[in-house]
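Quick one: structure tokens for this chain, please?
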Amino acid sequence: MGSLILCHKKRAKRPFEISRVHMRIYTIEELCYYICNNLYLIDYTIVNERLCRWVGDELELPKLAEELRRLLRENGSMEEFVLTILKESNIYAAAEIHKMQSVLEQLQSQRDVEKEKYKADTLQNSKEYESAILVYQSILNKDWDESVDKKFYGRVYASMGSAYGHQFLYKEAAKAYQEAYKICEQPDILKAYLYSCYKALPHDEYLKMLSGNPILLSLDTILRDEMEKTKKKIGADIPKEKLNEWKKEYRRIDKHRGI
């Protein structure tokens, strides 16, 4: 968590712990910082009686604690709950509060499954890839919401493929991208699928997959050209033998994980 200028002198002796993201919070400023940077993740880990107790006892803000309890008793929305914290903290200007309120209202108008994807995307952007994958899997394993465009689920598969790729789990990434392409049929997804196969498969199997498929062969040429340009751009000149060693190591890790 970045450095903050404290507007309130009180620092909790016992932190408020957000177990899902393994974070400890000691001040009202840190609480507001977490909320503002994780609007898509606001859930029961924040909106609960435990936070009300902590605000009242540890931060010695009894009026704010009681207002939050009132919202819980009256089944107020999560949006009302977090906006009350942000407003009563006196940290943010009215324009900043309004901007965050707009985001929360936008979330409120979205379907539950869309909110879940935003949560997963936010986790992935924070490099919490394993947590993001669990949320993507949860979306896909439930009955699909027919009120959303079917391509929405293709994008979920594609995002999950990206999360797997960041963990060097290319076999799993390839499977996810393959499902995504079946639904969306977008060239960029097919290219991501091909790259994952290139990283996951032994060279002879990869060539066999390309054989007789003009679309994949053409895309492979583009992919190799892009990889070569990227290597030159970053000044990387890695011998082919070293790349093969890394591939074997990635496969060893995947095998160790039972993939």
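The mean pLDDT is 86.
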